[in-house]
Amino acid sequence: MAVTEPELRAWGERLGSAATAPLVIAISGELGAGKTTLAQAICRGAGVRDFVTSPTFALVQRYEGARFPVYHLDLYRVESPGELVNLGWNDVLRDNALVLIEWPERAEGHMPGDVLHIEIEHHPTDPARRVLLAG
Q1: 46, part of any domain
Q2: CA-CA 20 to 30 A from 57: which of 19, 31, 88, 102?
Q3: Number of domains observed in the structure of the chain
Q4: Does the pLDDT at position 51 exceed 70?
C-alpha cells in the first residue's frame, strides 16, 4: 500500500498497540525510506514514553513499553553477523520483548524463524509517499 508519513505513523502506532511479546519485527528499506519513523511509531503504540532516537551509533536502544520492553536495533553499521554477539543479540531475542530491527539483512543467518517482515520503499512517482509491504 502507498502511504504518506502521517499514515505510516498511524499504521505503526496501531501495530505497536496490537503487538504482543515476544515479537521480532524486521524493517527493511533503503536509506531515507522511513524505517526509523516507523519504528518510532511502533514504539509509541507499544506505550514507550521516552523519545525514541535512531540507534545508528549506539546500535541497540532499550525502552520500557506499557506492557513489555521494546528493543530498537539498527544494524546498518554491522559488517558481519559475528558482531551480533557483542550487541547482546541472543539476550535481546530471548527477552519477552518487542524487538524492532532495522537493516535485518545484516543479521543474515541469525534471524529467528518467526519474524514479521516489513519493507518500506520510496514511491516511484510520488516523493511524499512510501510503499509499505508487510507480511
Answers
A1: yes
A2: 19
A3: 1
A4: yes
